[in-house]
Amino acid sequence: MQTSSPVKMPDDNAMEGAETQHEGGNVENPPTGEEVIPQSRGSDYNTARDTADTSTTTANNEVDEATETNGNDTSNGSGDNSSGKKDTEGHSDDNEAQNGEGSDKHGQEDTQEEEGNDEQNGKQNDDHKSDHNSESTNSESESDSDSGSDSESDSDSDTEEAEPRLKYSRLAGLPKTIFTRDPVSATLVNDNIVIIATHSGLIHLFRPNIELIRSFKAHSASIMSLSTDGTYFASASLDGRVVIGSISDPQDIAASDFKRPVHAVALDPNYASSKTFVSGGTAGNVVLSEKGWLQARSDTNICTSDSTIVLLRWIGDVVLWINDDGITIWNHVTKQQVLQVPKPDNISRADLYHPRMHLSDGHDRIYLAWADHIWILEVTQEKKERGKRLKKEPVNDGMSIFSRRILSTSASSTKSPQPETTVAVVTKFRVDSLLCGISTFGADMLMLLCYTKGERRAQRPELRLIDAASGEEVSSDELPLNGFESLGPNDYQLQTHAPVQKDAKAQYYIISAHDGVVARERDLTDHVQWLVEHEKYESAWVTCESIYGTVERKNLGIEWVESHVRDELWREAGAALSLVLTAFLGTIDPQDTYKHTIWSEDWANWAFIFGKSNNYELLANYLPDQLQSSVYDEYLRHYLRDDAEKFGFYMKKWQGLFGEGIEQSLVEEIDSSEDDKKTSALKLALAELNIADGKYKPALALLLELRDERCLDLIEAHHLLSDISPKDIPSLLTIGAGKDTASTLAALDKASAEEIQTTLKRTTELLVEGYHELPPKTVLSSLPESSPLAYVYLHSLNQVDSFAARDYGNQLMALYAKYDHVALSAFLKSNNNYDIGSAVDLCRADKSLTPDLVYLLGKVGRNMEALRLIIDELQDPYQAISFSLKQKDSELWNFLVDYSIDKPLFLKALLENIAMAQTPTYKLIERIPPNLEIPGLKGCLLNIFTENELQLSVTKGAHEIITNECHRETDALGRLRMGGVAFDGVGMDEFAVKSLDGKTVEVDSLPSWQAHDGSFASKLAHVSFLQQQSGR
C-alpha cells in the first residue's frame, strides 16, 4: 500500500495548557485546536469481495504484528491486551491492582504465541508487507492548508491534485492529562454526551461541545467498553466490574462485579425503566443482567463459549456480540438466535483485534469491520398479526446518536402484534489493511479508519472513503496523530456525531491513545479556500457568491486578476477585472457612497497599472462610464499619440466623460501631423466631437473635406443644405461614388444613365428634396452644364417637381440627348417647355434621334418631310403607314402608295394594313406590277380573304339577331294593342295620353256624367278609345 511521508506537527505537549472545564459553546461544534494537515495517499487502493471460502494468512500476519505493537504499548501501563485463556478466575474488588498486572502478563504471553505464528507464516507475511510498502514516501510538508482525500500525491505524478473531501482539527478543551499521562482506552459519542475513558480507569463526561460535566475514577484497570441509552452510561473494565451511572446525577451510580475481566457492555435502549444490560469478557459468557426481586440483580447466561466476548451492542430487540465463534445476533424478545456469521479463517482470535460497529441513522443497517473484513447487515423489524405483515419499523439502539425511545417489550400490550426482528447479511467484502473503525459518509459511502504496519514501525492511520456498493476507494488521508509509531490497531477508535440541526454536517472523532482529531465534511467555504490555495481563482470567485460579503468577494476577484497579471495574461486580466467589478457594482446600494468609492478607485488603480505596462487596449474597452475624467484623459492621450483610429473610437464612446483639454490637444495634433492617414482619422474624430458639442457647421466642413458619407446624415438631421458653399456642391454630389470629384466625373461620363442614377441616388435625392433650401439655380450654376451631375440632378428634379425644372427644358433636353435617349423621347412628347427649333436641330444632328425628329416634324406640320425620313432614313413601312393614317391626310397616303407600289416590303405592309386605309383592296392589287415578286403575298391575300369572310359572317349574324328581335317586339306590341284592361272604374274622373317613351302628352278630365254617374260600360268604351288614340 502506498503511503506518504509524515507531516511536521506541533509538540505532543501542545495540549497541556487546555482547560479541563470551560464555558459552553456550540453543541454541534466542539472546540478544536490547531488545524491538522493529513497526508493524501494515492488512490490505487483496491478492494475485493469474498466470492469463495478461500482464505489467506496475510491479514492474520498483520493482526499478529499489530498485537505485538499493542503488547509493547500496554507494557507501559495500558493493559490493553489480556488473554481469556490465561486469566484466573475470582478477581474481586479488593485486588483490582493485581488484576491489572495479570492482564499485562497474559498479554505478553499471547504475544509470544502469535510470534510463533509469525515464524510459520514468514513468507506470506513478507509478501503482504511488500504490498503495503510498494510505493515511495514523500518528504515532509509544513503547508497550513487543508489536505485532502481525492489527490494523487505520488512525487513522480504530474496529475492535478484533487480537492479533499474532509477537513481536520485537533480535539481541544480536554483535561490536560488526557492523551499525555493517561492514555485513552475507550470513547463514546452520543447526540447529548461524549465519554472518554482511560487505561487508568478514569471516565470523563462531556457535553457535545466538549464542556466537561465531571470526571471520576470508576475502575482500577483499563476501561474496555462504553454504552449509553442517552440517560445512563455504562463502562466495562478489565477489573471485572461494570459501572452504570446517571449522566446528570453523580449520586445515581452503581457497580456490578463479574469476577473476570469484562471487555464489552451494552445497555438496554430502555435501561432507564428496565434496568437491563448485557456484558461479556474473558469468561466467554454473554450475561443478561436484569432487575430481580427486591432490586437484586438477576444474571442469565444467554451464550456460553470458551472465547472472549470482544463486542456487545443492543439494537432494538436484538443483541449482537462477537467472539471466536463469529458474529452472533440474538433476539431478546423471542430468546432465539437470529443470525450467526462464522469468524473468517484469517482471524486467529477475536480478542487480538477488536471488531468495530456502526449503526445507520435509520437503525436499519449494521456496519461491521473486523480485521480486514466488512459486513453490511440489514435489520428489519416486522409486526405479524394473523399471518399478515404490517409496516416495517426501524429499530433503536441507545448507542446510536439518536436516542429514540421505544416501549420495552415487557410494557407492551398483550393484544398488540408481537414484533419480529430479522437480520440478514447484505454485503461482505475485504480491504487491504486492518480496520480500526467504520462509519457511513453520505448516502452511498463508508468511512474506514485503517491501520498499516510498516517494516519497522507502525504507519500513520488512514481515513478512507470507499463506495459502499463497489468497495472502490474514493479518497484516503493519512492522519499525523501524536505517538502513532508505538500504537496498534486496538488503540484507535472512530466515533460519529450526527448533527441535530437539519443543515449541519456530521463530525467524525478519530481518537487514539495519545491524540484526538475531529474530521468534518468540507463545506462551501472550505471549497472556496481550497480553490484559492490552488490558484483556481475563477471557480472560487464564482462559487463564493452565496457565502462571501460583497467586498470580500470583490477582493477575491482582485486576487484572480492579480494571478493573471503575474502570469503576464493581461487580456484575461482585463476580462476578469471587468467581470469582478461589474458584479461588485451590481450589489452596491445607490446610497452607499463608500462602496462606490471603492469601486471607482479600483478601476482607476487598475487603469493605471494596465497603462503603465502599455496594455491600454486590453482594458480600454472594459472601462465603465462612471469614473473620474482623468482615467479617460490618460487613455485618450495615449491613443492620440499612437493610434488615431482608436482615439476616434474611444472619444466617441466616452463622449462627455473626458476633460476639456482633449479637444485642444486634438487640434494641435492635427496641425502638427504629417501623416495623411492619421490626419484624416483625427479630423474625423474632431468632426464627431463637434457634432457631439452641437457645432454642426464646422463638423460639416470637416466631413465634406474628408468626403465622409456621414455628412449626408448630418445635413438631413439638421437641415444644413443652406450652409453648403456652391463650390462644395460637386463634391457633395459625388460623395460615396469615388475617391475624388474629378475621377468620379470621368468614370460617370462613360457610364449608362441607369448607372449614373444608381451611383448618385443618395446625394441627388438629398439636393432635390431640399431644393427649397438650396435652389436649383445655385446647384446648376456650380455644376458643369453638360456633366452627368447636371443630368442626374435635373432628371430627378423634373421627376419630383416638373414645375421647378420648367426653366431648364432646353438644358435637360440636351442632357437627355447625351445620356438618355429613352428619357428624351418621353420628355419631348410630355413637355412643351423647350424650344422646338432647337430640338429639331438637336435631333437632326444625331441620326440615332431620327424617330424623335420625325415626331418633331409631324408636330410642326412638316408631315411630308417626316414621312420621307421614315421611308428613306428609317425604312420602316409600318411606321410610315401608322404615321400616314394618324395624320389623316390623303395626300400622304397616296404618296406612300405611289412610293411603295414597286417595293415588295412596303407593298406587303400595305396589304397587311389595307383594312385601315381608305383605299379599297382591289384597287391596290390592280396597281401591282404583273411580274413583281412580293414575299409572303399568298399569306397576305389569304388573310385578306379570311378577314373579309369573317366580317361578312359577323354582319350576317348581326342582321339575323336584329331581325328576330324586331319580330319578337312587333308581336308583343300587337298583343298589347289588341288586349283589354280590367278595372272597376270607381273614382275615374280623368284620362291621360302618353307617348311610347312614357312621357305624358295630354291629361283631360272625363265629363262629370261619365265620371260619376256614367255606367261602367261607357267608361270602358271611352278608355278603349283613349288607348287606341295613344297607340297602346
From TrEMBL:
Bias type Acidic residues, positions: 141-161
Domain Vps41 beta-propeller per the UniProt entry, residue ranges: 166-521
InterPro entries (UniProt xref): Beta-prop_Vps41, Clathrin_H-chain/VPS_repeat, TPR-like_helical_dom_sf, Vps41, Vps41/Vps8, WD40/YVTN_repeat-like_dom_sf, WD40_repeat_dom_sf, WD40_rpt
Broad class of the protein's primary localization: other
Matches recorded under Pfam families: Beta-prop_Vps41 (PF23411), TPR_Vps41 (PF23556)
Subcellular location: Vacuole
Name of this chain's protein: Vacuolar protein sorting-associated protein 41
Organism: Yarrowia lipolytica (strain CLIB 122 / E 150) (Yeast)
